[in-house]
Every structure is written in structure tokens, then in C-alpha cells.
Write a structure and sequence with these properties.
homodimer; 186 residues; mainly alpha; 7 helices; elongated; DNA-binding
Chain lengths: 186, 186
DNA sequence: GTATACATGTAAACGGTTACATGATTCT
DNA sequence: AGAATCATGTAACCGTTTACATGTATAC
């Protein structure tokens, strides 16, 4: 399980509240790990209990108080231990691929709109990642180790989205070829 | 949830026992959906209860009897319904990416061996997919709709593994650059 | 003789998702 | 006035993973 380790990394990069962590998981961390605020709150409580993180209550005017978490030494130790452990390569789950194979027993042309919707989502993600890259990693800048590692992870997100867009185009071409045989009134 | 739908697709392509389904999830279906035999047995029981699949007991000499499942009409209906529903694009989880970002707070060079291990796993998967492609989809063959859809999904698996290998090379180059710059005695 | 493949299952623990709940502030 | 954002939480459910359990047959 890497959620607690992802939280440790995020808090080492920048301390923050559970809510702020949830925002980061939506944005920058989202291209390699996702989590909802409920998950994050639950794990933060466990990590606090285990002494991995420290909390500081911060009063804010107008807004509710927030609990700002930062990594305690045992948390750093836990992260080091985990970094040294092997993890298994993740296995993939693409429900759209299940649908594509299922289309053989239904209506291939009916999947075109769905595939186009997925394509749009991935095109939007790619645009967002590319904008983030231009903003945070300008060319010919001297980057420290942390920034270089962040950049290589972002390049992974970009490569993933590009590959996915190309594949979805391949799927669309295949579905249209099959649909052409028995045309879609849509 | 797509596990039951992945099972429906697999059983439509070819009826089989829970054990055989688990083998297929290890092999051909593994590049877009994974499942263990425990999951499959439990879901098959539920699907049988709901009338989605039919069971036939097959005695085998020497080996234990097996229960061969096939899709019943309500199962086909459930698959059609699901094909027409939109599904959300999956979000990614790559613990290796968490580790790469975490390496900023530990020992980047220590991740090289782990990254190489992942690279080897993905290289092996790619080789397996390419061999399967040559075997099942020879060039200049006339393919029916089902085979064309299977092929486009396999091309997705191949594209994913190629992209991942390239990215892992990028990660290795980055880690080596950092390790060379300031060898961390920690 | 040992390991692997075939074949099916139970039980417990864990992780993730969804719904509900509260309450103030800022933006349109 | 209504919606979105900030901020934290509880509870119930569902899905997944891991460990355990059993037994035969084949290959090395």
C-alpha cells in the first residue's frame, strides 16, 4: 500500500492540511496516485497515531481552523524503509478495453461516442500536464535533484496520456471500419 | 465495476471453469483487467445466483470435476446494458512514481536496481504480447469483427508496455545523472 | 521426492467508494 | 439568492488481497 507513502512524500515536499493534500491528489499527484479526502483523513489519523506525522492547529480568520501536518522522524524512517523494499509492478485496469472486446457481442458503432468522450478527457489531461511542465520546468533552467525527479514523473504522465490518445484513435478507426460495414444511423 | 462484465466477455468468447477463467485473466485478459481465482469464484457464484451464467458439471478422469460456465440470456442483456452506460476513465496508480518522487528525500541511486527490475518485468510482458500478436493476428489475414477488436486491445497493451519501457529508461537516466553528481553516502 | 498444474473453495483483514453531515466564506 | 470553495469528519458498504485448506496428476 502506497497511500501513506504518497502522503509522506507530499508532506515532505510541503506540509499541509488534509484538505490541501486532497487538492494536491486531485492536481499534481493525480497522474500517479489518486485518493479522496475521506481516505486521506482516515490515513492521516492512523499516521498521527503511529507517530509518522505531527499536527499543528492553525486558526484562520473567517475559515474553519485547519490541522497542518508535517512529517515526523519515524515517518521519514518509514519512507526510507519502503523505498528500500521492492514493490510489484502495478497491473492495469481499463474498463474501456473490456467494452471494446465486449462490443463483438453487441454494437461496435455504439461505442464510438463513449470512446470519443474518453479521448476528450485524456486530451484535457495532456493539455494540463503540458501547461504544468511549461510553468514549473522551463527549458534551460538549472534544476535541483527534487525538481528533476518531479519532472521525470511528470514526463511519465505526459507519455501515458499521449500513448492513450494514440491508442484511442486506433480504437476509433477500428470501430468506424466495423461500423462502416453496417452503417450507424447516428 | 467491470469484473463481472470482463467475465461475461471472456465466457462469450469461450465458456470455461472458474479455474480456466483465472488462467485467462493471468494471460490474455491480464493486459486490461486482472483478477485472482478467489475473486472470480465469488463473482461467478453471484452471477449464477442472478441467472447471468449457467453451470454444467463436467466429470474428468483423474482430475477433479469442473464446473463449466456459459453466459445465459440475462447475462447477455446485462452486458448490453453496461456497454451502453458511460464509464469513467480509470485513474492511475504507479507506486514506482511515488518512489521516484520520494527518492528526493532518500537515496536516488538506491532506486536504480528497483527500476531495472520493473523494466525487466515490462520487457518480458512486451515480448509475450508481441509473440501473441504474431501467433494470433498474422499479417494479411482476413479478420472478423471479434478478432479485429481483440487485436486493437492487444495493440493497446503493446503500446502501454513500449511507453512504459521508454519512461523507465528516462527514469534510469535521471537517477544515474543524480547519483553521479553527488554520490550520497547515506 | 519435489514442484508445478489442475480445481475449488472459506475466512479475515484491508482498502476504497459513496452517502451523509456540518458550517463559514467568497464569487456570480 | 445560489453555487462553489474551504475544512473536517462519520458510517455503511463493497471490492480486493492474503492466508489457509484440500486433493489429484503430471513432469523433472
Amino acid at each position: 500500500m502506497a497511500l501513506e507513502h504518497a502522503i509522506l512524500v507530499s508532506l515532505l515536499e510541503q506540509p499541509g492540511s488534509g484538505y490541501e493534500l486532497a487538492r494536491r491528489f486531485d492536481r499534481s499527484i493525480g497522474y500517479f496516485w489518486t485518493a479522496t479526502h475521506q481516505q486521506i483523513y482516515r490515513v492521516l489519523r492512523r499516521m498521527e497515531r503511529d507517530g509518522w506525522v505531527e499536527v499543528r492547529d492553525v486558526a484562520q480568520d473567517g475559515r474553519p481552523d485547519k490541522k497542518v501536518y508535517s512529517v515526523a522522524p519515524p515517518g521519514r524512517g518509514a519512507l526510507s524503509d519502503w523505498l528500500a523494499e521492492p514493490v510489484e509492478p502495478e497491473s492495469v485496469r481499463h474498463s474501456l478495453a473490456v467494452k471494446v472486446r465486449g462490443a463483438a457481442f453487441g454494437d461496435p458503432a455504439g461505442l464510438i461516442a463513449e470512446t470519443e468522450r474518453h479521448r476528450a478527457v485524456h486530451a484535457e489531461r495532456l493539455a494540463r500536464y503540458l501547461a504544468g511542465e511549461q510553468r514549473d520546468f522551463p527549458e534551460s533552467a538549472e534544476l535541483d535533484a527534487g525538481a528533476q525527479l518531479q519532472h521525470v514523473v511528470l514526463r511519465g504522465g505526459i507519455a501515458y496520456e499521449r500513448m492513450t490518445l494514440d491508442w484511442l484513435d486506433d480504437v476509433l478507426a477500428t470501430l468506424r471500419r466495423l461500423g462502416g460495414a453496417h452503417p450507424d444511423p447516428h
